Amino acid sequence: MKKTRIEHLRELGLELNALLAASRAITAASAERFHPKLQPAAFQIATILSARGSATGRQLSEQLYMDKSAVSRLLKSLCDLGLTESVTDPDDRRSTIYRLTQEGRSRLEASITVKVGAFHARTDGWSEAELIQFTGLLRKFNRHE
Fold first, then answer.
1. Model confidence, pTM
2. Residues 87-142 pLDDT 10s
3. Which of 30, 31, 59, 99 could form a disulfide with 111 if both were Cys (CB 3.0 to 4.6 A apart)?
4. By C-alpha distance, which of 118, 108, 134 is closest to 23?
5. What CA–CA distance (Å, rounded) separates 122 from 131?
6. What is the DSSP string of 4-31?
7. Sign of the C-alpha dihedral, residues 86, 91, 95, 98?
8. Three-class SS of residue 144?
C-alpha cells in the first residue's frame, strides 16, 4: 500500500528526531574535547566565531536563538579561559566584538575531528554522489524560511 504524504512527513519527523539526538551527542563529545569546563553551547559560540571571524553578543544571541544574558555568560567563560578575546567595536564604541584566540582556534580544530570521525562512521560505504545529495537536501531543508 502506498504511503500518504502525511505518513511520509511523520517518518521524516522521526528521522529528524533521531538526527537531532545524534547531533547533540556528537556536539557534546566535540564540546568536551574543546574544553571540559565549558557547556556545549559555548562550543557552538566558538564554532560560529570560527565561521564568521567575529561577532557581537547580540549577533550570537540571534544566531543561536539564545537569551542575550546566557550568551554573555558563555562569552565571559570563553574569555576567562583564553579561548576568545573581546575588543571594542570601532563602529559602535558601546558594543563589544568577540573573536577566537589562537588557543581557541587550535582547540576548536582539534574538537572538529570528533565530528568528522562520527560523520565518517555514519557515512561509511556511501558514494560521493550520495554524500553530495544528502548534504544538498539538508542544506535545502535548513534554508527554508
1. 0.80
2. 998 888 889 999 999 999 999 999 999 989 999 999 999 999 999 999 999 999 98
3. 30
4. 118
5. 11
6. PHHHHHHHHHHHHHHHHHHHHHHHHHHH
7. negative
8. coil
